[in-house]
Amino acid sequence: MVRPMEWSDEGVVLSVRANGETAAVVELLTRAHGRHLGLVHGGRSRKLRPVLQIGNHVDATWKARLADNLGHYSVELRQGFAAPLMEDAAALAALTSLVSMARLLPERDPHPNLYEITLFVLGYLGEPAVWPALMVRWELALLDELGFGLDLATCAATGGSAELTYVSPRSGRAVSAEAGEPYKDRLLVLPAFLRGGPASEVRREDILAGLALTGYFLEARALAPHGLAMPEARSRLAGYLRRET
């Protein structure tokens, strides 16, 4: 006799796809079970539509006859992050970009550290002075979880940690101002808020440089090798931030 599979976890809603007249296939980024899909009966109902908004934090129980089945979710709302952002186009673009990029994670592979960072960022999307820098750091964490982490602690050429100003697009390692000077037109900018050291004001140009940095490596290492394009939501987020400079 086959015993049904069942687990309970918390998660962030990444996507919702209609299935039949009333059901929905829901994709969650869960704490202990990674990016995981399941069918929600009545997922398109008036009761569950507000719960199943992308970015919302939910409690979920997943059941299936076999481990590799799609299975079924039952969900309850913990915290709604989507609704309060409906009047803030830039923050809503950040939320949409985050959930779109999180779908690059392999299915059913736990990433508890990134999950915690994701909840942290979602909690600050109502604070425009804070969340843009957090989005850059979230994308750095995503690169790390995908196996493409950047080394921003020491210079690739000298091994030192002083005046790190650039990042090599080939190695993903930091480069000092002196070592990078002859090649600066071919290097990526390392914004001040990612260099470590004392905290300082994060300027808008630093945010744009940070997004250019993470965007380059996400595209070159995570997307292009699989024939994927940068998600529209990510491009829209960068566009909003450029217009605000």
Note down, in words, how this protein is organized.
The protein is of the alpha+beta class. The chain is 31% helix and 25% strand. The chain has six helices and nine strands. Strands 3-2-1-4-5 form a five-stranded antiparallel beta sheet. Strands 6-8-7-9 form a four-stranded mixed beta sheet. It is elongated and about 60 Å long. The protein starts with a strand and ends with a helix. The mean pLDDT is 94.
Give me a quick take on this structure.
This protein is of the alpha+beta class and 245 residues long.
**How many H/I helical runs?**
6
The largest sheet, given as strand count, sense and whether it forms a barrel, is: 5 strands, antiparallel
Work out the radius of gyration.
Answer: 20 Å
In total, how many beta strands? 9
The 3D shape can be described as: elongated
Topology:
Blueprint (H helix, E strand, L loop, with lengths): L4 E15 L3 E8 L3 E7 L16 E8 L7 E8 L9 H14 L9 H11 L8 H15 L5 E5 L8 E4 L5 E4 H4 L7 E2 L14 H20 L8 H12 L2
Parallel strand pairs: 6-8
Antiparallel strand pairs: 1-2, 1-4, 2-3, 4-5, 7-8, 7-9
Helix pairs in contact: 1-3, 1-6, 2-3, 3-5
Keywords:
245 residues, alpha+beta, 5-stranded antiparallel sheet, 4-stranded mixed sheet, 9 strands
